[in-house]
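Running this now, will post back.
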Amino acid sequence: MMLRVLIADDEAMARRRLERLLGDLGGVEITASCPDGPSALAAAAATLPDLALLDIDMPGLSGVELARQLPAGTAVIFTTAHPEHAVTAFDDGVVDYVLKPIEAGRLALALRRAELRRREAPGVVPIPTPSGIVLLPSTCLLAVSIDGLSTRVDSDRGVWFSDWPLTEFERRVAGLHRVHRTALVRLERVARLRPTDGGGYDAILESGHAISVSRSAARDLRKRLGLRG
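Update: finished.
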């Protein structure tokens, strides 16, 4: 089944690049390509796309404002040149955000996440554990990390252990970001970042549990959050 996608960006070159990348990826029908928020909102109401690729800074209606007014069932991926918008994106529960200049591989990953969300039960992740399959709303997941021979799942509903590898969580759950070869976290659920001697961080979750952030991931994280250094 084709994924029906709406594009909204006030830069013509950015729209054309997205159109070309989507065409190269295949399996996508572009329902509209709009230069501003109001025209995108009208096009979304008329075409009911599965997914909207939205720039954040647009005249008339920002991408964030537009996302909140789209028809029910329309998934959202933010496309932006400004990494400081990342936390806003995740606070609004979007599928993903992609930094400009957009690369084909990164866009393909975001589309896979959108397609997965469309196919699966809304927001539910079936996690195998020693005591049975635990059904958790995806937004409940705070972090996933390797713990011995198991994978530790920190959530709003408690801590669980699973034999799923990190890559399975990465594939199934939008909004989890790799911060170490052994850990994924949901950025908007991190209460604070504690610097470590090695140039990385300990990401302290709202629950108090600490997740190691590698030095290389720390550089990327600072960029995502719009921090210097």
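The domain at 124-224 is CATH 2.40.50.1020 (OB fold (Dihydrolipoamide Acetyltransferase, E2P)). More later if anyone needs it.
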